[in-house]
Amino acid sequence: MNAKEIIKLNNEKRKQLTEENEYYYSDMLVYIRTCANKSEQQTEEVLLELLEHLLKAQEQGKTAKDVFGKDLRAYCDEVIEEIPGERTLKNVTFGIYLVVNLISIVMLSVGIISYAMHTLFDLGPNGIIFPLGTGLVIILISLASLSIWVIAIFKWIKHSTFKAKKPKKWTEFFRLWLMCVVFIGIIVATFILMPEFGMRITISFTTFIILGILLYITSILLNKKFRITK
């Protein structure tokens, strides 16, 4: 089975857990999965093994803490140490996929909105005009911001596990919303404040949108070939 099939099986088997064991196992699952540098396949296989072990112990009236110890975080750290790292090729492929996908979405959004504003309200130039240097810097800053945002989300999720008292849902939602606002704010501020430099390039709306579509199709093909998110 591949990782996605194992995840599906895991979700089905978890329904057999008692409320208490589900509470503990869910924290273990989230904590282990948020170690992004580990092999996804191996991680899911380990999580399934832990679940099956817990289900057998549960039949004997045991809880997760009876099976894995009182300090579940420490136990998970030991498990994580044994999981091999993700292959370099897969990490590179995932990075390329994110870059292509992000650029395609930005190009499609800017192209369609700019075209609509010019056509419907006669606002802006008849095409996409941007300084090459400025465009490259904005892309690099956007990618760096995205990386930092993703890492911050993972750390926040990981930090929320193994707490005696879970935070209220509205508090978690507010924190997530705040992180999203900061990320979007950085991107918008970069577009507004970045000074123009480099050779100015003019691309027609049609060409710009077509390039965005081609890049988006490329990201889909990458995803399908290397099973990045499916």
UniProtKB/TrEMBL annotation:
Gene3D superfamilies: c-terminal domain of poly(a) binding protein. SUPFAM superfamilies: BH3980-like (SSF158560). This is DUF1129 family protein. Keywords: Membrane, Transmembrane, Transmembrane helix. The lineage of its organism: Bacteria, Bacillati, Bacillota, Bacilli, Bacillales. Coiled coil: none annotated. It comes from Oceanobacillus bengalensis. The chain crosses the membrane at residues 94-116, 128-154, 174-195, 201-222. InterPro entries: DUF1129 (IPR009214). Pfam families: DUF1129 (PF06570).
